[in-house]
Each structure stands twice: as structure tokens, then as C-alpha cells.
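Figure S7 source data.
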Amino acid sequence: MTGDVLTFTDKGIYCPSGDFYIDPWRPVPRALITHGHADHARAGHGSYLATDLAAPVLKFRLGNIPLQTVPYGQTVMVGSAAVSFHPAGHVPGSAQIRVEVGGEVWVVSGDYKTEDDGLSTAFVPLPCHAFISECTFGLPVFRWAQQTEIAAEISDWWKGCAAQGRTAVLGCYSLGKAQRLLSMLDPCQGPILCHAAIEGTNDVLRGQGLPLHQTTRATAEVSAKTHPGALLLAPPSAMAGTWLRRFGPVSTAFASGWMALRGVRRRRAADRGFIISDHADWSGLNTAIDATGAERVFVTHGYTDVFSRWLTSRGIDAQIVPTQFGEIEDDTQTPPQNEPSA
Ligand SMILES: [Zn+2]
Ligand SMILES: [Zn+2]
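C-alpha cells for the predicted zinc ion complex:
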């Protein structure tokens, strides 16, 4: 469609006026990046633009990339497009990207959540003509409890594990969720251990001033014997196999929005599931979209069919656009199409 601020191509979301892509999945000359999760930030682009808060993680994950940074809220001209990054509340440094051309404003949400997690800069709704939104959890069944409630549940579970002489092993994604969980836990309750993949990310974020508790890297010398009563944060990939043995006996849990679906809980074979996500739930998606005032909404990943039909029924011009977001890492590691509708 000529004249649109952004178009949808097989490489990613493209801005003709600025000749750049947003979170492209194929190599391009100029990429604007919303955040460091692997489905949004990929290697191989000619140049990168992201927030200064996202930069350390991007470099940690992608190496020495040609990266320019900009603080939240500052407008930069890219070609004839005015571009600015604004908090998305998803993970530390994550952004929505606002693009204005000739008075027409389009916003790309990236991944976002509306609850303030106290660690990521809180989501800011941006008035716009067109909003490009994720809808990972775009079904009414997804309703998140307050973070404080989940914190109490996790704390009780950890206490119970310690009383039984078990290590409490909590599966979570290494960027965002792990640090959020850390900030919710009381380090006086017992030792907190982190798998190397998580502790590496913790160190990067500590280095940029994020207030994270001291944690212990779960090196080969660290075990249930050296740290009885511990809580261990581990990425999903480390939850199966021999790595966990030295922490035994263990009790296992996952912290993910997908834990709201019984089928996923069962397949994960964890003892517990804590329903907490860095993506907006049903009401968060609706609140965020309403706040933009956008007459056009493009949904990129998640329950796009159901959610776009819902938006259409509410009088919004809603369309599904195919992307490769949500296919690797972060909460979307469990693709919705494989799940039973709950
Ligand atoms: Zn993400
Ligand atoms: Zn994503």
C-alpha cells in the first residue's frame, strides 16, 4: 500500500521514507531494534539503532555490532521519518518505536506489558494513527494476577521446598523474566543461585545500574550440599538432563504466562507453574490499544485470528501481518497454535 508510513515485507517491517527496518528477521542495511530478545534482535545487519538502555544486552548477545543509541523520548531523523523510542515495559531497555512521516504517526509495539514490574521502564501509551501490536496472550483466558501476589506464591513454595530439604528450581527466560523474579524475591529467605546463562545477563544489567540482588553463579562447585535451602533460577533448556543432579533432591517450577494453560503445565512436567508474563494479558492488550486511539491495528504474533476478529467487532480496522516474532526465546517459546484452547 503506497503512502503508508510502514509496510510489511518478507524481511520485516519497513519504512520507505526512512529506508529502515524494525526488528527485521533477515539481514538489512539499517535495523531499528525494540529489545534484545532473539526474535527481535538478530545478527548480520549493516547498522543498528536501539535505546541506550538496551545497548549493553545487545552487545552481550550479538558481539561488537555497529550500534547507535538514543535515549527514550528523543526524536531522531532517519531519512524523512521522525523516529523515537518509548518504554514498552517488557524487559529493561525495551521500546516501542514511534515513526512519524508527514504528520501521520505509526507505532510498533515490539513486545510489551502494561503492568509496571519495577525494573523495566513502565509502558507509556502513545497516541497514533496506526498501531502494530503483538498479541501473544490475546485470549480472554489470560488474566494476570498482581506481581505481589505471585511473589508471595513463589516465596511460599520456596519455603516449603527448603523445609523438605529440596532445592527450589525455577525455570524462566534469561533476559527479563529472571531479573524480574529476582527483584520479587527476598534474599534473606535463603541463597539464590543462577545458571550461568542467567547470571551473565544479570551482570550486564547490574553493570548498567539495575538494582539486582547479589546472586551466586551455579558453577560446578555449587550444589545442594554447599547451598542447602537454595532457590535456583535456570533457563528452560537446563531444566531437563543431568545438569540439575547435583542440586537434588529438587522441586521444579516454571514462571511463564503459558502456565495458565493446563496442557502446557502438564507437558513441562514441572511440580508447579507460576503464571507471570512479560507480555500484556487480554485486558492489558485492550487497554493499551484503546489508549493509542489508533483507527488501524496490525497484529503481528500470538492469537492473531481471535484477537483481530475481536478488534474488528469493536469497530477497529484490524489486520494480521505475518512476522517471525514469537518463534524463538522469550515467553513465546511455546507456540500458541500447538496449545489446546483453554
Ligand atoms: Zn521479547
Ligand atoms: Zn518477541
